[in-house]
Amino acid sequence: MLLVTPTTADKISLTTSTYLCSGYAGCQAAGYGNGGYRQASSTMYWRMYAGHNCTNYVAYRLIQSGMPDVRPWEGSGNASNWGVAMASITDQTPAVGSVAWYKPHVTPAGGSGHVAYVEQVISDTEIIVSEDYWGGDFYWRRITKSGGGWPTGFIHFNDRVVAPTTAPAIVGTPAVGAPLEVAGGAWTPTPSSVSVRWLADGVAIPGATASSYVPTPDVKGKALTAEVTAQLDGYTAGRAVLATAPVAPGRFQVAAQPTIQGVAEVGQTLSLAPSSWSPQPAKVTTQWYADGVALPEATGTSLVLTRDHIGKRISARTTASARGYKKSRSDAAATAPVLAKPIAITRPSRVTGTPVVGQKLVARVGATKPGDATATYAWFRDGQRIAKTTKPTYTVRRADVGRNLSVQVTLTRRHFRSTTELVAVPAPVTTVPEIKVRADASRKRVTVDVRVRAPGAPKPDGQATVSVGGRTVEVQLVGGKARAVARGVRPGTKPVVVRYAGTDVVLPAVARTSVTVPSRR
């Protein structure tokens, strides 16, 4: 059996290390164990000297963690040779369960070096070890890197480290305002806690220690990292560093498009119901357009339409902006072409004259605003346009009898929208009849033939009253004709009066003549 030379060392200075306890019993009472080595210290492990001995104690602890009782290398077992023989697994990173190795004469080692068992890693620069010394005692010690006493290296035989079985990952796209989430992955053994710290370009972000993080404008353009730490008592914490691309500008989400409200007419005011965004932008600007061309200084939420806008389609655009966000533009649909302001009628037009065949009707324009509008005319018969009638006057025709006449007055003026007014003639068209009377007399009897004709109504019906002397006879015209016979008329020249009652389209009329009734012979 190849034995090794025991190592000895005195307690080191408290300026570089802090002894937490000393002795098996003292450390046990203080809550610091020895893994059962006190009862097993009389046995040699990895062919090391038994008892108080740094190499035998550390070998025992490694065997307890699952390693076989076979030294992993050939050659010297002195503490000074451990890191040399196991150089392939020796580095400068402490881990729970690793071996803190000291070269000869590196505090607290003597000429044969020293090894200790790493119980806890507080940080990359602070650890807690347990150790035993040849010719000395058992201790727990806290070591900092800022002074002497820091190990030459750490040998990783069988570390107790929380390791990821499923790597954590950042879910989401790095952009201002867009949530990011760390999916914690899976670890073995199962950690008691998993913490996250977010950094931007390597600098910790104040308060960003949750698994989720929403990038702010302050980190735009910076690369983010999430440091994930999985912890379990008695194990070196598992760590993962996750990185993103530089944070892109945020994007506004349009919740509602802007809309233009109002009538597209000169003199009217259009107003803009603006967009709504998520998140709410810091600034919103507006620009109005006419047929796609920006209107100078038209940047408010309303626009008064002028003559310059006639015939053009009005649209508007709102732009949302905020620090760290890409500008968002939202367009309101264009209006119909802007109409000119209509000519207003302040007093209606009228028609003068009598609607009788042969009479003249005159359309007289009322009052308008503006007052210098130009009028054009069109005459209608029962709602149908009468051809070639464009003057303000109209002479009633035979074809109009019994019909309803009206005139359409169209008012126009530059920069104004035409206004049309339809003026009705108050009554249907009538006609004046012509009555022809022929009277024949015999002894005490007079026969009167009545014939009535009228323009547009050549053979009207209707009633007539025929008076001969003191005799009166009622007759009914049929086809414009009637005959009345007056009996018992005394001899002499007698007046004959025919009174035609008329119809709904033929006016009443009176005709007179005389007849001589012969006397007896």
Q: What general outline do the C-alpha atoms trace?
A: rod-shaped
Q: Distance between the terminal alpha carbons, to the nearest Å?
A: 198 Å
In the residues, how many domains can be counted? 5
Strand order, largest beta sheet? 1-6-5-4-3-7-2
Question: What integer is the average pLDDT?
Answer: 92
CATH superfamily of the largest domain: endopeptidase domain like (from Nostoc punctiforme)
- Strand segment tally: 45
- Percentage of residues in helical conformation: under 10%
CATH class of the largest domain: Alpha Beta
Q: How would you portray this structure in words?
A:
By secondary structure, the chain is mainly beta. It contains four helices and 45 strands. It has a seven-stranded antiparallel beta sheet. It has a four-stranded antiparallel beta sheet with strand order 13-12-15-16, with no helix packed on it. A four-stranded antiparallel beta sheet has the order 23-22-25-27, with no helix packed on it.
